[in-house]
Design brief:
Blueprint: H1 2-13, H2 30-37, H3 43-52, E1 65-66, E2 72-73, E3 78-79, H4 80-89, H5 97-111, E4 125-127, E5 130-132, H6 152-163, H7 185-197, H8 216-222
Antiparallel strand pairs: 1-2, 2-3, 4-5
Helix pairs in contact: 2-5
Length: 228
Amino acid sequence: MLFIVIVSLLSLIAPIRVSAQTVPDPNSEVAAKVSTVFAAMPEMIAVEKCESNMRQFTKEGAVLHGGTGGAYVGIFQISEALHAERALKMGHDIMTIDGNIGYALWLRTTQGVAPWKGCVPATATLVAGVVASAVVSGDTLTKVLKIGVRDTQVMMLQKKLNASGFAIASSGPGSMGNETDYFGAMTRDAVKKFQCAKGIVCEGTESTTGFGRIGPRTREMLNVIVLQ
């Protein structure tokens, strides 16, 4: 009887084994999302790896902070002090994966690779803060376009605007499938809508702010749109 009691007590105080649990990787979606958003800007894939090694969070799940005093945040190591408030006003929370990527896209479009020049691949050519690809595809805009211009790139511009929801016209010349090589008032209006929606510029004129004119910043954003 005494033996049975002792065995029972030992079983109660025996070490409790806890089954191992797999902790989900908080960064599992980062690589795929960055590759999708920056498909036409491969240098940003290299920037992502250089800045954070494709991480928005630490392995414990906390937001990744780097740089002196942890002043830089997430995948693209965006300065919290300089950009967090502005990013939120634009609808991008840089503390999240989507927000960090979304604001990085805006920075890349408006400022080129200047915010990450230390991580830009040596094979890229840095011109006026913008990476110029050595290979220009057939649907890449390369010219300054404005009202009154007649050029084959205007037709490409109209196709890109129509394809991205900024229709030149609902029917007739300029409409989807009926794009022309002339940059007229309807094309300018569609360009303005595109520029405003993308946070490039939303006021002024073609000569003062570039509103309604295809310059480097607008062209970079439009070249993300790949025509099928």
